[in-house]
Amino acid sequence: MSQLKPIISHLDNIPSTPGKFKPEKSPYIHRLRIHSISKLTLFSFFFLAVILSIFLFSAPSTPSRPAESAAAALARRSLSNAEMDDHERERKVRSSACARSRRGHTVLVTGAAGFVGTHVSIALKRRGDGVVGLDNFNDYYDPALKRARQKLLNQAGVFVVEGDINDSALLKKLFDAVAFTHVMHLAAQAGVRYAMQNPSSYVHSNIGGLVSVLEVCKSANPQPAIVWASSSSVYGLNSKVPFSEKDRTDRPASLYAATKKAGEGIAHTYNHIYGLSITGLRFFTVYGPWGRPDMAYFFFTKDILKGKPITVFEAPDHGTVARDFTYIDDIVAGCLAALDTAKKSTGSGGKKKGAAQFRIYNLGNTSPVPVSRLVSILEKLLKVKANRKVLPMPRNGDVQFTHANISLAQKELGYKPTTDLETGLKKFTRWYLSYYKKKKSAW
Ligand SMILES: O=C(O)[C@H]1O[C@H](OP(=O)(O)OP(=O)(O)OC[C@H]2O[C@@H](n3ccc(=O)[nH]c3=O)[C@H](O)[C@@H]2O)[C@H](O)[C@@H](O)[C@@H]1O
């Protein structure tokens, strides 16, 4: 802004249109000797002087001037556009945040155009809560899929602000516009194996981004209650199954897992110091319609349909690699129950007023399925034989086995998953075929 100011005031001193031009103030006129010439000549000179002055004032006097003026004009244009956008955006945010009844929540969903974010946002909106989405639409996987989800969200009445969770000024603006009662923080850099290719993106989103969200929540008045996505990967190299929330989580096998584990520590700190009510949900390999193309069930489907080989990992000595695959609708039910049972934060304006709720739950399916079985189900549903290449599991952050103990979530959230893998994959493949048939392309 400070750089713009002189440019704008300089612009303000120059008549922007010839119509504003005041010819009598021109210094050129005073130099004319008018005594010995006729009225006609006088008017001709006067007319010429006007034209000359217009030219002089609008033409560049130095070579640097045109660039300066263009930059200033652009700055002015973009400033006014930004103002217009801000108004429009604020109007949409406020309307999207409106709950149907006074008792409804007002929820900010980060990562709203993501897989889980889309399903949760729509479920909240449908039951009458106010929902505002936030998503940066990054290209970790095909952004067209995120845009298609955004369309669904729009149809459901959920407005998604395009922005990054690391943009503290934007978060503050959102909290200035809306008194959020809850934040459903789902924005993250997902994927276990990609962490070896792009480690900093995990630190940026899962640690920096989380802190940025908690910072704005801590300062908000009223402070919202926060529910956020941790991960089954925090159990790391544990071999005792099923995984319980009481088990150790100090041996992550991937940087992804390490950032989620760090997130749990950071969440505890904000709960302890600022009185934020925080619930972490450890999701177990969530799958379903509108899912993530970087996940095995998704790209296996694509490759099987294309007749391309798929690599199926196995553990040493032909050991089974298995996952506690959890269907999206069950996860959504768990997320909503976590929001509904969340107690209020106790602080205000950055000051803690008392102890606040701090919870962590496993949200899994409690029935691990070998990856080879996942492939067999897909073959049956797609009616195509897979070209399987069985390979030893590379040391890329994957763990051999996940299995959730969900008794705590069952007891305190009423969480009860109801969809087995075959039923869930049937819904997924039906969606996949219809979505990509319409698109006439794969992701
Ligand atoms: O539970 C979780 O918290 C995690 O679940 C998934 O991670 P993952 O279970 O590894 O899911 P996939 O990447 O879809 O892999 C599923 C299984 O397929 C196996 N796989 C993967 C890729 C491949 O080419 N072949 C193969 O056999 C993996 O080893 C794994 O056992 C998500 O990708 C993570 O973002 C999430 O946090």
**Strand runs, count:** 13
Please trace the helix and strand order, writing H or E for each element: HHHHEHEHEHEHEHEEHEEEHEEHEHH
Number of helices: 14
Tell me which ligands are bound. Answer: uridine-5'-diphosphate-glucuronic acid
| % residues in beta strands | 5-15%
Taking pLDDT < 50 over at least 5 consecutive residues as the criterion, the unreliable ranges are 1-84
- Rg, rounded, reads 30 Å
- Largest β sheet strand count, sense and barrel closure: 7 strands, parallel
Distance between the termini: 42 Å
Order of strands in the sheet with most strands: 3-2-1-4-5-6-11
Structural class by secondary-structure content: alpha/beta
Shape: globular
Average of pLDDT: 85
Catalytic activity: UDP-alpha-D-glucuronate = UDP-alpha-D-galacturonate
EC number: 5.1.3.6
Transmembrane segments: 40-59
Pfam families: Epimerase
List keywords for this structure.
single chain; about 450 residues; alpha/beta; 7-stranded parallel sheet; two-stranded parallel ribbon; 13 strands; binds uridine-5'-diphosphate-glucuronic acid
